[in-house]
Description:
A hairpin with a 2-residue loop joins β1 (152-153) and β2. The protein has helices spanning 5-24, 37-53, 55-70, 72-81, 86-100, 109-126, 142-149, 166-171, 176-205, 211-231, 237-260; strands at residues 152-153, 156-157. The longest helix is centred in the middle third of the chain and has 30 residues, at 176-205. The chain is built from eleven helices and two strands. Strands 1-2 form a two-stranded antiparallel ribbon.
Amino acid sequence: MFSLDWIYYAISWILLTWHSAWDAIGVSVDAVIGTNWAWILSIIFLVVTVRVILFPVFVKQIKSQRAMQALQPKVKELQEKHKGDRETLQKEMMELYRKEKANPLMGCLPMFLQIPVFLGLFHTLKRLNPDNQGKTLYGWTVEQFNSASNAKLFSAPISGKFGSTAAEMASLGANLTTVKIVAGVLVCIMIATTYLTSRQMILKTGWAEDPQQRMVQRLMLYGIPFSLLISGAIFPIGVIIYWVTNNLFTLGQQQWVLRKFPPLVPPKGSTAGKATGGKTAQPARTGGLLGRKTAQPAVKAPAAAPKVAGPKPGAKPVNPKKGGGRPAKRQG
């Protein structure tokens, strides 16, 4: 059976290294405002460490998304050509992706690579209990294990969960109601930030034309946040801190990238390259995290045609000869 011990050792090493660093610079190990900040900061900077390591993958993700976006006119042409023939359409699109070296699943790669980190942290924090006999597993010392077991966020143990029992919290010297309140608030923040990270990207790039890609977008936008409403009850508070920090990091990173390299979005109503006439599409104008539109300059009304002044009452008629014209001949 495949062992995940190497993940547990890696996560434990990063946590303990950061904890030692915060302890060395004078961050109090004891609780301040009911919080052991050295351990909380260790979890937060575990996120920073992982995201720095995964930054090259994030760059590839952005390039893949740009490639997929550039292929949208060709995808739309294939959809029109093979309308009603789903099997042929899928084959043609896969051939197009292979030829252009685009991967529709690349957008999910950073998330998939973080799953082992999430599982490792989940397992490590789940073990934090003073009654646990395996305190020296994965490179921990007994002192470090006991310190982490008693670490709290606003008096709620970082190993506590919304679904914890009163007996489990009593063994950690914590109040169950306090744990549920802290965990519940963090779960709500986790769901909200997860939704916003997906919404932020979709607002900038727009919904994909490819049904497969659109399905992935819907899953990211609605499916994952909804699943957290249920699964969040079994996540230790330390894991939720990791998730929320990761989401906030993602929001900032995406905002920077999207401002520096705005995605190209074809104008509304354009067909596969016809409306643009082969010209480069303009950057998306939808801005802001919540989808607020940028104010557009007011369109000036066309200038009215100058009015021709009519003859004043009582004025003499103009001599047509002086104007260079001749009087019309009478029809007889």
